[in-house]
Amino acid sequence: MPVNQVPFITLNRFEPGFREKFLGGVATLFEKTQFVGGPIVAELEAALAKISKSKYAIGCANGTDAIQIALRAVGVEKNEKVLVPDMTFWATFEAVVNVGANPITVDVNRESCHWDLETFKKAVTEFKPKAAIMVHLYGWASPDTMEIRKYAKDNGVLLIEDGAQCFGTEINGESILGSALISTTSFYPAKVLGASGDAGAIFTNDELLSQTCRILINHGRTDHYSHGLIGWNSRIGAYESLFLSLSLEHIEARLESRRQAVKYYAEALQGLPFKPVVAAAHVKENGYCAVGIIDPTKRAALIETLKKANIGYGTIYPGAMSLQAGAKGHMVGSIDYGNAHYVSQAVLNLPCFAYITKEELEYVCQTVRNHFKQ
Q: Which CATH number applies to 251-373?
C-alpha cells in the first residue's frame, strides 16, 4: 500500500519476539517480587558499562536526576557557577538550579548547534565557573569536544557531559559517554535506547565518583541506616532495567536504522532551502534526530505542508534557555550572540525512528521537495 502518513516518532516497532520476551521477564520478576534492585539492575549496569566502554555505569530514576547527581558527585555546591549551553532541553538548566548552583548560559555555534572552543574559553575566562555541562544534542557532539575537555581540565573546570540524546555516539572512534570525566543519559521512551517509562544513568571511569553517585541515588546511604550524604530516592526500577536489557540486545540494529534514515534525508534533500544538518566527519552520530535548518520566515509554511500530508515533525528545541520564563532570577550571566535563538526559530526535525521504512522516508522527502516547487 502507498504511504500517506508518517508519524514524527513511533515507539511500537519492536523486533519479533521482543514483546513476548519482555512480558515473560515481567512475570518472573513478579513471581520473585523483585521490584526494586536485584540481579536485573546489576545485569543492566554491567551491559551499559560494556557497550559505553565505561568502567562504571550507575542506573537512576531519570535523566534529569542523572545530571543533578553528577553535579553533586563532582562537588558542585550552593551558589557556585555552572556553564550550560543556551541551546538544550530545560532539564540541563533546571538541574543546576535544583542543586543550588547558579547557571550561566553560553551560546552555541550557529553551524554545529553546539558549543565551540572559542566561546567556551571566553566563558571560562569571564566567569571562572566551578563546572560546566556540555550537551551532546541531536545525537551528535561538538566538533570541538576533545579540545573543550582538555581546556576544562587544564583550567580546573569540572566538565559534566549531558548525553541524554547521544547513547551510541562516538568521536574519533571513542564512545562519548565512556570517555568523559562523568556523563549522563536519559532512557526516556523516545530516546534511541528508551525504557517503558522514566530511567537514566551516569557513566564514569573514576571509582570515587561512581561510589558517590551510588550513595546519592539511594538516600545518601553509606549503610542501610547510615546516611553520609543528603541524596535522592533515584533508584532505577527492575521492570525498566529488564526492558532496557532486552533492548540492548537490538541496539546496534536500531542505531543503524536511524543512521541510515538521517543519511537518506541528507542525500535526498540536497540543494533545497531546507538544509539537513549532519554531524562532523569525526563524529559518528546515533541517528536520534533528523535535523534541518530553514529560514525562520519560511518554516511555518513548510510545517503546514507537512501537516496536510499527515507527516509528523518537531522543533527541537523552540526556545533558548536564557529566554525561558523560568530562567528569570536564576541566571548570573550569559554569553549571547543570538545563535541559540536563531537555531530555535530555524530548526525543523523530520520523522526519525528505528525501522522507519524507505517508503516512509521517500514520502517525506517527496513532500518536502514538492513544497519548494510550488
A: 3.90.1150.10
